[in-house]
Write a structure and sequence with these properties.
Layout lengths: L17 H6 L2 H8 L1 H13 L6 H17 L6 H10 L1 H15 L7 H18 L4 H24 L5 H20 L4 E3 L5 H7 L1 E2 L2 H28 L7 H23 L4 E2 H19 L1 H11 L1 H6 L4 H27 L1 E3 L7 H11 L12 H19 L4 H28 L4
Antiparallel strand pairs: 1-4, 2-3
Helix pairs in contact: 2-3, 4-18, 5-18, 6-13, 6-16, 6-17, 6-18, 7-8, 7-9, 7-16, 8-9, 8-16, 10-16, 11-12, 13-14, 14-16, 17-18, 17-19, 18-19
Pfam families: BPD_transp_2
Protein name: Xylose transport system permease protein XylH
Subcellular location: Cell membrane
């Protein structure tokens, strides 16, 4: 009886059941079984509700196949190039929304803040003669300040984020109208820096192909260095064959995109900036102490507080990031039409930014998502819009289809969380 609580030497150590499966490192499975290991790991992830970006990638592929079958112009270099620019403005706003959603909160003011920021930019540059870069910096600073106001009311005073940002949406819309003045529209120089953000292309073939090569080489180097650090720490790492296979898959995708873009006008500056922002935001979220704190607060706020994390500071900073990214999105929205007007940031901009983040895989419940969600989600939404526009379908139908896609994404997220709880991963 005295030995009942002791562990026998010939028995496997560690937890059993779902907990043990949760602690299992998939790299070991792939190393031991090769290609078969990928299949088993895929099945394990699906059973455990760890779907990642799979649903949105499959959905995007289906959307492209359907619209291409209906209209051969859908996957033409010109349409895809235009699509890559159309996703930028709202996509940048969505990147900021991702940070807020990681806390399980919402920012309903992002659209209004983007419109107000575009108005500030236009007034400073056109009416007051500021240099475009100075005007952009001022617009972003104003938006970050507005985000600070939201964050303080939410984190310090305990006002629900829904109420704070709803009030902000109304207030900053009024601020936008006041800044623009009686005319309601301020035109930006067509040949100016701001307008050039969405009209500039790098027409040299080396630009797109060079970027593709840089991305591929960067991914390979990061994977190799990551493996070296893991081996030095005595924890499982991927095999070199695994790293090479992943690098080849990425190379196929990015060089394919580069080839398509070079068939039209080349690499758009707007797309390049968007991709840089997404990669930088993902790095902050997954590779920095700050990012880990954001996930910790979103996953379990009480546990984060007991771990010594300044929860209030994290909350305030996230809303400031959302505001700043809304401003950047507003700048690109103004660039697209070379003007700032009462319509900038209004209509369905906010809903599309939130929908993109959720459709792309960011959980509404907090604690799960990446900046790439904004990119993938916007690709889905804009692909639907572009495909239906080519078919002459009305906006009403587009909204209904996008709403259905959003609902499907939330349902998948809910079912995924339920599966994770059942398997002991949540």
């Amino acid at each position: 009886m005295a030995d009942r609580g002791k562990h026998r030497a010939d028995e496997p150590a560690g937890p059993a059941g779902p907990a043990a499966e949760a602690q299992f490192d998939p790299r070991l499975l792939v190393r031991e079984k090769g290609a078969a290991g990928y299949v088993e790991e895929f099945k394990r992830r699906v059973r455990g509700g760890e779907l990642g970006s799979l649903p949105v990638i499959v959905g995007l592929a289906v959307i492209w196949i359907v619209f291409q079958s209906l209209n051969s112009q859908f996957l033409s270099p010109q349409n895809l190039s235009n699509l890559s620019i159309d996703i930028v403005a709202t996509g940048l706003i969505s990147v900021g929304i991702v940070f807020v959603l990681l806390l399980g909160e919402i920012d309903l003011s992002a659209g209004a803040v983007s419109g107000a920021s575009a108005a500030v930019l236009a007034v400073l540059q056109v009416n007051n003669g500021w240099h475009p870069l100075a005007a952009i910096a001022a617009a972003v600073a104003v938006a970050a300040l507005l985000g600070l106001v939201h964050g303080v009311f939410f984190a310090k005073l305990g006002v629900p984020s829904f109420v704070v940002t709803l009030a902000g949406m109304l207030a900053w819309t009024g601020f936008q109208l006041w800044v623009l003045g009686p005319s309601g529209t301020i035109n930006l120089p067509y040949e100016g820096l701001v307008a050039g953000l969405t009209s500039t292309y790098f027409t040299q073939l080396i630009a797109a192909y060079g970027l593709a090569g840089l991305v591929t080489a960067g991914f390979f180097a990061a994977s190799v260095l990551g493996n070296a650090r893991r081996r030095a720490a005595g924890i499982p790492s991927r095999t070199m064959a695994d790293v090479i296979l992943r690098t080849l898959v990425l190379a196929f995708v990015v060089f394919g995109v580069a080839h398509v873009l070079n068939q039209y006008k080349g690499l758009p500056l707007a797309l390049l900036i968007f991709l840089v922002v997404v990669v930088a935001a993902d790095f902050v979220q997954r590779r920095t102490r700050y990012g880990r704190k954001v996930f910790a607060v979103g996953g379990n706020i009480e546990a984060a507080r007991r771990a010594g994390i300044n929860v209030a500071a994290i909350r305030v900073s996230v809303f400031m990031i959302s505001g700043a990214m809304a401003a950047v999105g507003g700048v690109f929205a103004a660039s697209r039409i070379a003007s700032a007007s009462q319509a900038t940031g209004q209509s369905n901009v906010l809903m599309m930014a939130i929908a993109a983040a959720v459709i792309g895989g960011t959980s509404l419940f907090g604690g799960r998502g990446t900046a790439y969600s904004a990119l993938l989600g916007m690709l889905v939404i804009q692909s639907i819009s572009s495909g239906m526009a080519l078919q002459g379908v009305s906006n009403s139908i587009q909204f209904m289809v996008t709403g259905a896609v959003l609902l499907a994404a939330v349902v998948i997220d809910s079912l995924s969380r339920r599966s994770q709880k059942a398997s002991g991963r949540a």
